[in-house]
Amino acid sequence: MNSPPERYSEKVAIITGASQGIGAGLTTAYRELGYAVIATARSIGPSQDSGIVTVEGDIADPDTARRIVDTAIERFGRIDTLINNAGIYIGKPFTDYTLEDFDALIAINLAGFFHMTTRTIKHMLEQGRGHVVNVSTTLVEQADSGRPAALSVLTKGGLVAVTKSLAIEYASRGLRANAVSLGVIKTPAHDESSYAGMGALHPIGRVGEVEDVVGGVLYLESAPFVTGEILHIDGGQSAGH
User: Is the whole-model pTM more than 0.90?
Assistant: First the structure.
């Protein structure tokens, strides 16, 4: 039988969807905080940084979650933070959604969250501490007739609901759960030519930057008295128009 790994002296974060955009920004930020990072995505190459371990795989596959969590424990002996950043968005009129759309959104946005979070929380409970951060969208609360996305909102709204549920279920056991609810953020998921038009959707007058999201997540990380929070990083959309 293999002996258990030695406890890593620094904290450890798992970040899904880490190959680009928000996930890559978070990986850099957590390393700057001194965390070791397990960075995972469907396609991600090895890192030259010994404090970043990459795991390639489809988050919708339960075996991917097993490999990610096992890697974290085998390499570092602990998991302090899980950021469920991986997700997809499909916007279209509700009756235009296909069964393929439904299956993809459920598999990645909800099943991927479930596979990762159940495995991770088990280890966090053994440690007596941990933090889960889920990534959602302000469209959950502020629907826009010009941007129909009911099926995407169904899945991302589930993450908002489960964030509060987990926060209460585990508050007395040292675990926190929070979420960030995003407006439009400049990432490779969007065509750069669309930013000018999408900026007008935000009361603050511009689309968000990856750094805006990173700053919000790091606030939640540094706030031990905050749990069950849905932090809106949306340029004021959630306040109204």
Answer: yes
Question: Buried b / exposed e across 28-43, counting CB within 10 Å, b at 16+?
Answer: bbbbeeebbbbbbbbe
Distance, in Å, from the CA atom of 164 to the CA atom of 227, rounded to the nearest integer, reads 8
Q: Can you tell me the distance from the alpha carbon of 70 to that of 68, in angstroms, rounded to the nearest whole number? A: 6
Other C-beta atoms lying within 10 Å of the C-beta of residue 144? 13
Tell me the three state secondary structure of residue 141.
Answer: coil
pLDDT tens string 103-131: 999 999 999 999 999 999 999 999 999 99
Contact between residue 202 and residue 157 where contact means Cβ atoms under 8 Å apart: no
Q: What is the pLDDT of residues 134-143, one digit of tens each?
A: 999 999 999 9
Secondary structure letter of residue 100 according to DSSP: H
Contacts of 82 (CB under 8 A, 6+ apart): 13, 14, 116, 117, 120, 130, 131, 132, 133
CB 110 within 8 A of CB 87: no
Backbone φ, ψ for residue 69 (5° rounding)? -65, -40
At 29, the amino acid letter reads A
Q: Alpha helices, DSSP H only, in the chain?
A: 21-32, 62-76, 99-105, 112-127, 150-170, 195-199, 210-221
Q: Which residues of 45-66 are buried (b: 16+ CB within 10 A; e: fewer)?
A: eeeeeeebbbbbbebbeeebbe
